[in-house]
Queue: 2 jobs
Job 1
Amino acid sequence: MGDTQDWTAAPGAAERARSVLSLAWSCAVTADGVREEYAGAHTVTEDGRVRLTVPDDSGLFAASLCAPRQEPSALLEFADVAPVPVRHRIRARLWLSGWLAPSEGALLFRPTRVVLRQASGPVVVDLDEFAAARPDPLAEAEARLLTHLADAHPDAVERLSRLVRPESLHAATRVVPLAVDRHGLTLRIERTRAHGDVRLPFHAPADDVPQLTERVHALLAQAAATGCPRALQRQRADGDG
């Protein structure tokens, strides 16, 4: 379920895809009818190719040996999982289709089609943009930052919720930080049987953690000038009862 807050200043599809690819710990690979799942087995080259280190008895090696020119067509699947426990935890899925080839004891995958699916729907990512893009500069720190914010500073999350439009907080039972990137922070608004996501854009991009800290403090200062949302007032009053 979506909410009415405007979504602004978000990473482009190519950057988002590269962030998902660089941080995903596991992947599923399908090639010529062989499907295998691996954890911690892939690395990414600067131009977006994927290097897979798989066991010698992997069916993928057999597929590559039997395919014409030893390059079987393949599909790689990755999931972006929210680091904070929420309902419907997968934030995005990434599909790469292309070709596998043996390379120095591993398999090198060259993508020919990139599809990113987020809550807004699927988008085909331009290959040149994908090759040139880089992961969000906060991507590697995101899990640590979000879990710390949720676990150690729930009061700050509540203050940030004051920046959410009242209609988006209707019937809210919980507000948690879902995602952060250099352009903004996303909150998950959970209800009894539904949820929605609201993005709080930064006043300027944050290229590192110190800059992110300043941007969040700016949001908190902005929130301090607003009142406590009625929906959360009612939620707190109900909890006190």
Job 2
Amino acid sequence: MRQLRGQERVITANRQTSWAFADAFVAEDEALHVARERAHELGLRPVSPGTGAALRLLAAAADAKAVAEIGTGTGVSGIYLLHGMRPDGVLTTVDPEPERQQFAREAFRAAGFATNRARFIPGRALDVLPRLADGGYDLVFCDGDRLESLDVLAESLRLLRPGGLVCFEGVFADGRTIDSAAQPAEVLRLRELLRAVRESQELMSTLLPVGDGLLCAVRRG
């Protein structure tokens, strides 16, 4: 990697401070704190407060009534999505680990959401998503197996209504996505995902520098 000049070091430091400030700007309640702590205990990496707030905003902007989530975790991202969705909206959340989904159920309840606001489906994303309705979703949030990203993108496009949003979490891969050194297969797959989304004629996309990178795209009508 090239050596940073003095001014570049200042810019980089300022950006890191700004990102930290953006996360600190988001106030999280007790339900989110508990869900986040459970994630850490299980060795999971929940979305950052900044990423959660971005998802909440996008769900609200889309007036989302039906959202699909790949990667339930312990419910951190789900709480943010539910807060942004319409009061009668339903979150369909998919995860291969039923134990995680039980934690998420408790987290949603602690956050004040009725049980009928979420539908939990245990299983691998690529086994479950083909069973969901074509064009039936306003937003699809993807935080699952990075190696399945391109297949999940294809399924997400089928699920989304025109004007719907698809979002992928963690596309920076802790800086490895742009690192010129040899990278593991999951990072190479993320690069393919970024290229596919950027070049797609079906999508209008942007990359938000929140958390570990949030790739967002709108399906054109």
